[in-house]
Amino acid sequence: MNVLVIDDNQIDLLINQRVILNLRPTAHVVSCLSGIEGLKFIEQCISGGICEQFPDLILLDIRMPLMDGYEFLDKMLDMIKHCEKRPFVVMVTSSIDTGDYEKSQTYPEVKGYLSKPLKQTAMLEILEKLNF
Predict the structure, then answer these.
(1) CATH code for the domain in which residue 101 is found
(2) Which residues pair with 50 in a beta bridge?
(3) Is the pTM of this model over 0.90?
(4) What pLDDT, on a 0 to 100 scale, did the predictor assign at position 123?
(5) Helices 10-23 and 120-129 meet at what angle, rounded to 10?
(6) Measured between alpha carbons, how far is 2 from 88 in angstroms, rounded to an integer?
(7) Other CB atoms within 10 A of residue 110 CB
(8) Residue 36 is inside which H or E element, if any?
């Protein structure tokens, strides 16, 4: 399982990575500090010949400077529109804005919405739901 974690907070990146690796020790986890870095990684996977690292799952922060999670999603979906493989997305946020949850539900790729800090039990439910 390939996981891309995108969050502008280094501590949250570390927590998210540890939760994933505790649940799925063989997972390949790539961490990015911005949506821009995440898009560059996706582009490398598509055009750079590292298709085996294309993410199966993306853990995505909503509130980030420069490019928020929804902007990332829109750009990524446009970028991969001709790809056979489509990643599942789980929003991981500290936002209490109900509008964020409602907006996330308009994206078929979004399969979960979790609060920070990420907890193993919540992530395990998502992984089992997605058959990972």
Answers:
(1) 3.40.50.2300
(2) none
(3) yes
(4) 96
(5) 60
(6) 11
(7) 20
(8) helix 35-47
Choice between 94 and 57, residue whose per-residue pLDDT is larger: 57
CB atoms within 10 A of CB 8: 18
Q: Please give the distance of CA 110 from its chain centroid, rounded to a whole number.
A: 9
What's the pLDDT tens digit per position in 90-128?
A: 999 998 888 999 999 999 999 999 999 999 999 999 999
pLDDT of residue 72: 98
Give how far the C-alpha of residue 11 lies from the chain's centroid of Cα atoms, to the nearest Å: 16
Residues in contact with 132: Cβ distance below 8 Å, sequence separation at least 6, in sequence order = 1, 24, 56, 57
Structural domain includes residue 119: no
User: Is 18 within the bounds of a domain?
Assistant: no
Q: Does residue 128 sit within a domain?
A: no
| Category of 91 on φ-ψ map: left (φ > 0), alpha (ψ -120 to 50) or beta | beta
Give how many domains the chain has, as a whole number.
1
Residue from 7, 79, 10 nearest 43 by CA: 79
